[in-house]
Design a protein that fits this description.
634 residues; alpha/beta; Rossmann fold; Dimethylsulfoxide Reductase, domain 2; Barwin-like endoglucanases; 3 domains; 7-stranded mixed beta sheet; 19 helices; 24 strands; 26% helix
């Protein structure tokens, strides 16, 4: 009997799925054909997901460290150990650090946050991915949202500003393909290396980190030519300040900074100044620079100035908070002193310098030793903590440093409620696979720990939390949701129609600063772009799927090729260390760039974040991964 469920991977599509297991045990995972957005197809990662669930490398019983060895223990012993450690610190809850991230998404993520917020534990602010861009959109619009995805079909031109369409979203790729069949043109702006060719009619190659100068140069051109919309003084609270900063920039210097030349600026100004609907897709790498928020803000400013905000077929698409459609009024919120000491991009040094010191850490849905910048510093910070609990299904780089590992259920093994950060559906996930006998959900684990504490921390049953989280305005109850597998949240198809924004005064906010990017340091000429991979999400790569040495991609015309000896091993080096790699030629990528597909494990010879310094972005406390420069050497 096919099971309708949903994916909780960190992906904008949040697919509704049909899982079917034949009498011979063959598993088929397909998109739900009745779901308006999923439309019957899903990505290759999901189709092979059962390999992860049934992997022989999976942890299926709690593991307790004894010196350099691990001992399997039962759940009662594991829970008693956790309880005793937490109980001993109840009087100083800030000495407990709760770390989580996007290893699993949906409502289940909110449960550990609620538990540790109630306890008064510390948690890390900021983010490792989208936080700088989210802060940028919040500053500009007052709220983070975009036109509905289907409105892309009303665009005359789609400007794909840095989005890796094929690797980030198979359903966005399908929308773009459908739009092109309707004669919508796609213009891609990126440093290259993102496989844009199959989705692009025109390409402008920009210097990485300098996108804001291209957007500013086009704004200047539109203002000078009279193609900026009228009434910006009324629409925006700070139009004069933005006008002053943009018009003060020498046009030639901006064109040189972004590396596209005056012809590229003029072509983009022609597109945005055409009067036709132009939709802008903002990539999820632009914010990973030191001035990442500034990059996003100037692109938003260009979209507004050219009349594309509040318009069907236009809009600026970045991201929308995945929880925006859930009712999380039940969730305890952290006090300010719980979130003011630790930040995800700098978590290693924040732990090492913390006062009061961190005495216990609880990490779920996260692999910070692998995913955070300066991996070796993060590992040293973890080792300094007296007791470390890691909830995971695999012996990751972070789990290796734990004192106690608790095996968890995974995507498609647990009940969940899955909203999206792209579309407006909430999908219901029912367990489609039976987890290993020793695996438990985050909700089950913390319910058991909470009941053992004195005084207890009581979590409502998962079913109650799901029912309480459904938006009442949608008029769909839990039983109907379970029956259909999804619900759609109704909202205007066009965001900010009438140019009314979510700031208290209803007006837009332009950026008021334009910073030059720091130059490449001496001896490290290549900007390192640690881009996503198509076959796995983050570090969720099975050990047997690793390639060693990992690949680094260079342009054919990169000057680095002439400095290396083919007969000797090649290393990618930064001031933090070096990593053995193999070089691959990549057509179309910027010659000053080294591309690395992120997520592979340190202990298996990968782990690019060991070379990346822990630098934060200009807003949102994001990780400025792409600020790192490297060199290649024998």
């Amino acid at each position: 009997m096919p099971i309708i469920t949903a994916c909780s991977q960190d992906c904008p599509d949040t697919c509704s799925l049909v899982v079917d297991t034949s009498s011979s045990g063959q598993v088929r995972i397909n998109g739900n054909p009745d779901h308006p957005f999923t439309a019957g197809f899903c990505c290759a990662k999901l189709k092979a997901w059962h390999r992860r669930l049934s992997s022989p490398n999976r942890i299926t019983a709690p593991l307790l460290r004894e010196g350099a060895m691990w001992r399997e223990i039962g759940w009662d012993e594991a829970l008693d150990i956790c309880t005793a450690r937490i109980q001993a610190l109840r009087a100083e809850p800030l000495s407990i650090l709760h770390l989580d991230s996007s290893g699993n998404m949906g409502l289940m993520v909110q449960v550990p946050q609620h538990f540790f917020n109630l306890m008064g534990a510390s948690r890390a602010a900021g983010g490792l991915c989208a936080s700088a861009g989210i802060a940028a959109c919040q500053a500009d619009f007052g709220r983070v949202e975009h036109n509905e995805p289907g409105d892309l079909l009303n665009a005359r031109v789609i400007v794909n500003w840095g989005r890796d369409i094929a690797r980030t979203s198979v359903h966005l790729a399908a929308l773009v393909k459908k739009a092109r069949k309707k004669n919508t043109r796609v213009l891609t702006i990126s440093p290259g290396g993102d496989g844009h060719e199959a989705w692009t009619d025109e390409f402008i190659r920009v210097c990485p980190a300098q996108d804001r100068f291209l957007a500013a140069a086009v704004c200047q051109k539109l203002i000078e030519s009279g193609h900026a919309i009228a009434g910006l003084d009324a629409v925006a609270a700070n139009w004069p300040a933005f006008l002053k900063i943009v018009m003060a920039q020498p046009a030639g210097e901006m064109a040189k900074a972004c590396g596209v030349g005056q012809a590229g600026v003029e072509r983009l100004a022609e597109v945005y100044g055409s009067g036709e609907p132009v939709a802008t897709l903002i990539g999820w790498g632009l914010q990973r620079h030191i001035y990442g928020a500034e990059n996003v803000r100037f692109i938003n400013a260009l979209a507004l100035l050219s009349g594309q905000i509040g318009r069907s077929g236009g809009g600026s698409y970045y991201i929308a908070p995945s929880t925006r459609h859930l009712d999380l009024s039940w969730q305890a919120k952290p006090a300010s002193n719980q979130v003011d000491r630790f930040f995800k991009p700098t978590i290693g040094r924040d732990i090492l310098s913390a006062e009061p010191a961190v005495k216990m850490i609880w990490a779920n849905g996260t692999n910070p030793v692998n995913q955070s910048p300066d991996s070796h510093l993060v590992a040293r910070a973890f080792r300094s903590i007296p007791f470390k609990v890691v909830v995971d299904a695999f012996m990751t780089d972070t789990a290796e440093l734990a004192d106690l590992i608790l095996p968890c259920t995974l995507n498609l093994e647990q009940e969940n409620l899955n909203p999206s950060y792209f579309h407006d559906f909430i999908n219901y996930a029912r367990p489609a696979f039976t987890p290993p006998a020793g695996a438990r959900s985050d909700h089950w684990i913390l319910t058991q720990v909470g009941q053992r504490l004195n005084p207890p921390i009581n979590l409502p049953p998962m079913q109650e939390l799901i029912a309480a989280s459904l938006p009442s305005a949608a008029g769909v109850g839990l039983e109907e949701l379970r029956r259909t597998g999804y619900m759609q949240i109704k909202r205007p198809a066009v965001s900010f129609e009438g140019l009314r924004f979510a700031h208290p005064d209803g007006r837009y906010r332009f950026p008021e600063e334009l910073h030059p990017a720091p130059p490449a340091p001496d001896g490290y000429p290549l900007r390192l772009l640690s881009l996503i991979r198509s076959e796995a999400t983050h570090s969720q790569i099975l050990p047997e799927d690793h390639i060693h040495p990992p690949k680094v991609y260079l342009a054919a015309d990169s000057p680095v090729w002439d400095t290396l000896k083919n007969s000797q091993p090649v290393y990618m080096a930064s001031p933090l260390g070096r990593l053995e790699v193999q070089l691959v030629e990549l057509l179309g990528v910027h010659p000053d760039v080294a591309v690395y597909r992120r997520g592979d494990w340190l202990k298996l010879g990968g782990g690019v974040n060991q070379l990346i310094a822990d630098v934060a972005t200009d807003q949102g406390s994001g990780a400025a991964y792409y600020a790192q420069h490297v060199r290649l050497e024998n």
